[in-house]
Design brief:
The chain is α/β, with parallel strands linked by helices and 254 residues long. α1 links the parallel β2 and β3. α1 runs parallel beside α3 and α3 runs antiparallel to α10. It is globular. The chain binds coenzyme A (COA). The site of coenzyme A has 15 residues, from α2 and β6.
């Protein structure tokens, strides 16, 4: 099972479990997560959701090989189902990030309510580096969360940044020692689970509800470009370069 789920005392944990491929996410994994989030919405036994990876890797983002073999063709593709569920979730979501969080590994955090990072966490959104464009409404949410200039640096250059920087920017609530990350994140999720569920849901909806339509529209707009760009030559060059372990050459494209 490449996505593990389990409910413990009201906390639904969703765990990336594909360490040999750095937890890169396939369509099947998106589907599992979308299904788990959808089921959680109507399951009274779920009072908080916790995303975790492995100590050395959160996730390397979209599986690039699966993207080529099995590209998301429509808005009902698993990746878009996942984005719809996580962006519209009524229940509180906590994330515990250690190691690299690439692409959607970082953008999904903008839909979480509490984000804790280990001191070894590294965040990156290398969409332009891959000949692609932002997804998960990150082109809307990142400038809102961190300000335009910092968002531009992270989304245009796509370079990795540290847990400290992510925390200073407001993308992460707290940086903790790697060996304490899970415990801290679980404690925070347990606090949420112990509070009145209706108050938690309403508080979240009051903070985020007004943006729901704008977020859905941005996910759709980005998705349209993203799907087209996946089969463009720039992305093909970037993906080949990754698997051939070489630097991509974009100079041939205007
Ligand atoms: N898609 C598919 N396979 C991936 C992957 C991805 N996004 N990320 C890693 N892998 C695979 C590698 O191909 C490699 O497979 P192999 O052992 O069969 O050769 C294995 O996972 C280990 O990856 P490797 O690059 O050797 O690990 P690393 O520790 O040196 O680097 C990362 C880790 C995450 C920094 C690096 O793998 C990376 O940059 N991955 C691509 C991230 C990316 O561009 N994601 C897409 C965002 S839209």
């Amino acid at each position: 099972m490449e996505i593990l789920t389990g409910n413990n005392a009201g906390i639904l944990t969703i765990e990336f479990n594909r360490p040999d491929k750095k937890n890169a996410i396939t369509a099947a994994m998106y589907q599992s997560m979308a299904d788990a989030l959808q089921a959680a919405e109507t399951d009274d036994a779920v009072r908080a959701i916790l995303f975790v990876g492995k100590p050395e890797i959160f996730t390397a983002g979209n599986d690039l090989a699966d993207f080529v073999a099995n590209p998301p063709r429509t808005e009902t593709s698993p990746v878009f189902q996942f984005l719809r569920q996580i962006s519209q979730a009524g229940k509180p979501i906590v994330a515990a990030v250690s190691g690299a969080a690439v692409g959607i590994g970082t953008t999904m955090l903008m839909h979480c309510d509490l984000v804790y990072a280990a001191d070894n966490a590294r965040f990156s959104m290398p969409f332009a580096q891959l000949g692609l464009c932002p997804e998960a409404a990150s082109s809307l949410l990142l400038p809102q969360i961190v300000g335009y200039q910092r968002a531009a640096e992270k989304l245009l250059l796509g370079e990795a940044f540290s847990a400290q920087e992510a925390c200073q920017m407001g993308l992460v609530n707290r940086v903790v020692a790697a060996d304490q990350l899970l415990e801290v994140a679980q404690q925070q999720a347990a606090k949420l689970a112990a509070l009145p569920a209706a108050s938690i849901r309403l508080t979240k909806r009051l903070m985020k509800g007004h943006q729901q339509e704008a977020i859905a529209a941005k996910i759709a707009e980005e998705g349209q470009h993203f799907r087209a760009m996946l089969s463009a030559p720039e992305a093909k060059e970037a993906f080949s370069a990754f698997f051939e372990k070489r630097k991509p050459d974009f100079t041939q494209f205007s």
